[in-house]
Amino acid sequence: MGDEDWEAEIIKPHMSSYVPVFEKDRYSSGANGDTFNRTPASSSEMDDGPSRRDHFMRSGFASGRSMGNRDAGESNKRENTSTVGGFGVGKSFGSRGFSNNKFEEGDSSGFWRESNNDCEDNQTRSRGFSKRGGYQDGNDSEASGSSRRGGRSSFRGCHGGFGLGSPNSEYEQDEGTQRTGGLFGSRRPALSGTGNGDTYQSRSGSGSGRGGYKGLNEEVVTGSRKNSWKSDAEGGESGDTQGPKVTYIPPPPPEDEDSIFAHYQTGINFDKYDTILVEVSGHDAPPAILTFEEANLCQTLNNNIAKAGYTKLTPVQKYSIPIILAGRDLMACAQTGSGKTAAFLLPILAHLMRVGITASRFKELQEPECIIVAPTRELINQIYLEARKFSFGTCVRAVVIYGGTQLGHSIRQIVQGCNILCATPGRLMDIIGKEKIGLKQVKYLVLDEADRMLDMGFGPEMKKLISCPGMPSKEQRQTLMFSATFPEEIQRLAGEFLKSNYLFVAVGQVGGACRDVQQTILQVGQYSKREKLVEILQNIGDERTMVFVETKKKADFIATFLCQEKISTTSIHGDREQREREQALGDFRCGKCPVLVATSVAARGLDIENVQHVINFDLPSTIDEYVHRIGRTGRCGNTGRAISFFDPESDSHLAQPLVKVLSDAQQDVPAWLEEIAFSTYVPGFSGNARGNVFASVDTRKNYQGKSTLNTAGFSSSQAPSPVDDESWD
Ligand SMILES: Nc1ncnc2c1ncn2[C@@H]1O[C@H](COP(=O)(O)OP(=O)(O)OP(=O)(O)O)[C@@H](O)[C@H]1O
């Protein structure tokens, strides 16, 4: 992870043999305006009173470790299926695959070592269009990608060139350029599933630069114009900035009731939720409710809840629903997969149904009563579908907008009426900047994955959002924050968004891993990882598995490698076009591709049925991210397994927090891991406070009266650096 100059690899003579001749010619020719050079990328608040009433509902927690064990020796080898929709195994990898290009273990070039290209995105976020373009890693990746991907059309570089679509602010028209590509429309790997007739072949190679990198700036507006809430948006996807057009219009959501209410079964450990310790801190917290009936929701809402298969509240719902209904601000922390989405949606909908809505499709300016933000496109879309499900048959209309899609489409959705606006930050700011929505009616501001929304990656955007003209002050709106993890420093930052008497709900160990996930840590060196991965996947058979890697390029690489190994695989990461991302997720959801290789873009919030395994091919840089990643399995009382490759060379800093997370979740802790943890002892790290790594309590208890914020509110020394920014939207 950033420890090696992989750029150097691409100039190794033997690597050039990976370049299929036609690809090489095409790219090196500079045709289509592509620049295919190999210039090395430059590596790349709460002074609240002390008397807080703490509620403790407790009993022990039974470990949910009754796993559906698989016989380790089972040779349930995956069928040699051609990858339908994922990577074009069939034609793509068939005869012209990697046959002569085995990635040699122990060969430093054997693995696709990359500089941590998070850097490039960090830079992009902070400097705008600094280095996306002709010279950037896209080229490098192209070089390495095309040179290492033997599959004939399995991974095709997309063609950038200069995105010179004419600026055009009228969404009704072709809204001009959006920042889906860098200014120069970098090329990047593309998955072209030629073997199945899917639509992955997106690279037209036109000079419009279509398909450049997907443009993190869509969600994180660059900081260069940080004093102007509007100018950011104007310089964003609005089309005022040159860049390739984004024409993708996502398919409409399902209309039939069966699809809208489709859900998976709660698992055998669902009832064990009742035994989880819950702590509520803050003054005058309303009592928890025990049943949906006690929430006193309207009949339509109750019908929808029943149709969704919900019969019993989860702990976070028992506490959050009455708190939100009482009009209180809330910061809620509950384990992954325990129903946080419904915990905020249901009371918001109940309130809107009770007081009535103001926004209507007949108004020229849409003024939503609720804005929900989440860090990734897929997650916000999932939240929207939940909002749509629970509001079914009501007058409340939810709308979703996110980057990577046609801006005009987003605006058209809004003008049809918008009460609940689900949005990723960049697209939201763009729409606000275009004055397509008014903020005066906002009663609820929800930050899902709030710790992520407030860290250095998205925090400044969120600050701009609450400073936008018309946005009600925190005293006049209700602000709700949800996550499975809440580092202390982020909790302190959150105070700026919340009324001082907000309530803090902690379900179980704050930041703790879901106990329904059986966690295994294997010591695997960098060069043995692929072999180990294949071995594990072959034993797993066709059970749905998410494989997390640290960088986008590695995601492509590993997915390609697995396809070559006849394991149907697809991938999701920030360099894929939105259409491709949605296709990949769809193929994974339906089981067409039982393996999904992902960067941390898929680590948070995604709720996919039947994900039985999570494999951390690369461990993430923080323990919180680890908790989110493994939380893609073992959801809603179901059991799951997580296997993580621990490379002492690069992961030692995680040993201590890992030991803590494992033991808190009553998992076996390998002796070797304890030894590493001991030898890398970090003074100040304690099991309870987790030092800077992990919050365990409402920080108001620890930091009453103290403020460590700098004037900007985002202390670089306090706030964690963004996790794997390359993967986030
Ligand atoms: N009371 C309930 N009864 C049955 N199913 C529920 C209930 N509440 C939520 N679920 C289901 O549990 C699954 C997980 O819920 P959700 O995605 O809201 O979890 P989460 O806590 O937000 O997870 P994460 O931390 O990963 O974002 C969803 O499929 C949801 O429909």
From TrEMBL:
<feature type="domain" description="DEAD-box RNA helicase Q">
    <location>
        <begin position="290"/>
        <end position="318"/>
    </location>
</feature>
<keyword id="KW-0547">Nucleotide-binding</keyword>
<dbReference type="InterPro" id="IPR001650">
    <property type="entry name" value="Helicase_C-like"/>
</dbReference>
<feature type="region of interest" description="Disordered">
    <location>
        <begin position="706"/>
        <end position="729"/>
    </location>
</feature>
<dbReference type="Pfam" id="PF00270">
    <property type="entry name" value="DEAD"/>
</dbReference>
<keyword id="KW-0943">RNA-mediated gene silencing</keyword>
<dbReference type="GO" id="GO:0003676">
    <property type="term" value="F:nucleic acid binding"/>
</dbReference>
<keyword id="KW-0469">Meiosis</keyword>
<keyword id="KW-0347">Helicase</keyword>
<dbReference type="GO" id="GO:0051321">
    <property type="term" value="P:meiotic cell cycle"/>
</dbReference>
<feature type="compositionally biased region" description="Polar residues">
    <location>
        <begin position="29"/>
        <end position="44"/>
    </location>
</feature>
<dbReference type="InterPro" id="IPR000629">
    <property type="entry name" value="RNA-helicase_DEAD-box_CS"/>
</dbReference>
<comment type="subunit">
    <text>Found in a mRNP complex, at least composed of TDRD1, TDRD6, TDRD7 and DDX4. Interacts with RANBP9. Interacts with RANBP10. Interacts with PIWIL2 and MAEL. Interacts with BMAL1 and CLOCK. Interacts with Tex19.1 and, probably, Tex19.2. Interacts with RBM46.</text>
</comment>
<keyword id="KW-0067">ATP-binding</keyword>
<feature type="compositionally biased region" description="Low complexity">
    <location>
        <begin position="144"/>
        <end position="157"/>
    </location>
</feature>
<dbReference type="GO" id="GO:0031047">
    <property type="term" value="P:regulatory ncRNA-mediated gene silencing"/>
</dbReference>
<comment type="similarity">
    <text>Belongs to the DEAD box helicase family. DDX4/VASA subfamily.</text>
</comment>
<feature type="region of interest" description="Disordered">
    <location>
        <begin position="24"/>
        <end position="246"/>
    </location>
</feature>
<protein>
    <recommendedName>
        <fullName>RNA helicase</fullName>
        <ecNumber>3.6.4.13</ecNumber>
    </recommendedName>
</protein>
<feature type="domain" description="Helicase ATP-binding">
    <location>
        <begin position="321"/>
        <end position="504"/>
    </location>
</feature>
<dbReference type="Pfam" id="PF00271">
    <property type="entry name" value="Helicase_C"/>
</dbReference>
<dbReference type="GO" id="GO:0005524">
    <property type="term" value="F:ATP binding"/>
</dbReference>
<dbReference type="InterPro" id="IPR014014">
    <property type="entry name" value="RNA_helicase_DEAD_Q_motif"/>
</dbReference>
<dbReference type="GO" id="GO:0003724">
    <property type="term" value="F:RNA helicase activity"/>
</dbReference>
<keyword id="KW-0378">Hydrolase</keyword>
<feature type="compositionally biased region" description="Polar residues">
    <location>
        <begin position="706"/>
        <end position="720"/>
    </location>
</feature>
<feature type="domain" description="Helicase C-terminal">
    <location>
        <begin position="532"/>
        <end position="677"/>
    </location>
</feature>
<feature type="short sequence motif" description="Q motif">
    <location>
        <begin position="290"/>
        <end position="318"/>
    </location>
</feature>
<dbReference type="GO" id="GO:0016787">
    <property type="term" value="F:hydrolase activity"/>
</dbReference>
<dbReference type="InterPro" id="IPR011545">
    <property type="entry name" value="DEAD/DEAH_box_helicase_dom"/>
</dbReference>
<dbReference type="InterPro" id="IPR014001">
    <property type="entry name" value="Helicase_ATP-bd"/>
</dbReference>
<feature type="compositionally biased region" description="Basic and acidic residues">
    <location>
        <begin position="71"/>
        <end position="80"/>
    </location>
</feature>
<dbReference type="InterPro" id="IPR027417">
    <property type="entry name" value="P-loop_NTPase"/>
</dbReference>
